[in-house]
């Protein structure tokens, strides 16, 4: 039964939830038809709410970025906390980092990437000021490390991802910290 416009908000929520799952399983390039099927709506409904893949991804990943921004706003948050949060998000789904890197020239993806970079830069400065991370480390270095991790995780079986992420966190701490024995 077609419920018309009254189903709009419910359909939108179902599409975002379905896209989160489909992107986690199949990456950013997963078929949008799979998202519509999982949400229990037609593709027409999907495209009414989200005219393209990036519009859908922005809705899905806005929560991820909001979580990172909340972590940034904690005065006690360190780069290791941020890297841990990004790692956990990447273990669940590498699609966010995938989208930021593959669609880097799309202004909407650029805006999302800029939000992530602003979080990284703020936490990095705080850790550098506290002497936990070498002054020569840049936000670009951190973003490169995150991108490399996401790339590797996207090609790793889901059940092996936590161990790979833990190894990456160790390498990150040892590579960026002023003193590897101090948690960066």
From TrEMBL:
Keywords annotated in UniProt: DNA-binding, Transcription, Transcription regulation
A Pfam family that the UniProt record links to this protein: TetR_C_43
GO function term, MF aspect, one: transcription cis-regulatory region binding
Occurrences of domain HTH tetR-type (ranges): 9-68
Ranges of the DNA-binding region feature: 31-50
PANTHER family: HTH-TYPE TRANSCRIPTIONAL REGULATOR BETI, HTH-TYPE TRANSCRIPTIONAL REGULATOR RUTR
This protein's name: TetR family transcriptional regulator
Organism: Leifsonia poae
């Amino acid at each position: 039964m077609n419920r018309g416009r009254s189903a709009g908000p419910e359909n939108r929520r179902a599409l975002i939830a379905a896209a989160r799952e489909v992107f986690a399983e199949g990456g950013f390039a997963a078929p949008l038809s799979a998202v519509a099927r999982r949400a229990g709506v037609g593709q027409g409904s999907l495209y009414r709410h989200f005219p393209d893949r990036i519009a859908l991804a922005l809705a899905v990943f806005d929560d991820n970025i909001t979580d990172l921004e909340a972590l940034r706003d904690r005065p006690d948050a360190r780069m290791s906390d941020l890297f841990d949060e990004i790692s956990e998000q990447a273990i669940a789904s590498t699609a966010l980092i995938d989208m930021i890197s593959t669609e880097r020239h799309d202004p909407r993806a650029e805006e999302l990437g800029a939000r992530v970079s602003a979080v990284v830069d703020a936490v990095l400065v705080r850790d550098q000021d506290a002497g936990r991370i070498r002054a020569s480390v840049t936000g670009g270095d951190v973003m490169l490390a995150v991108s490399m991790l996401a790339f590797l995780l996207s090609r790793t079986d889901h059940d092996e991802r936590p161990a790979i992420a833990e190894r990456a966190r160790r390498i990150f701490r040892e590579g960026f910290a002023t003193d590897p024995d101090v948690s960066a």
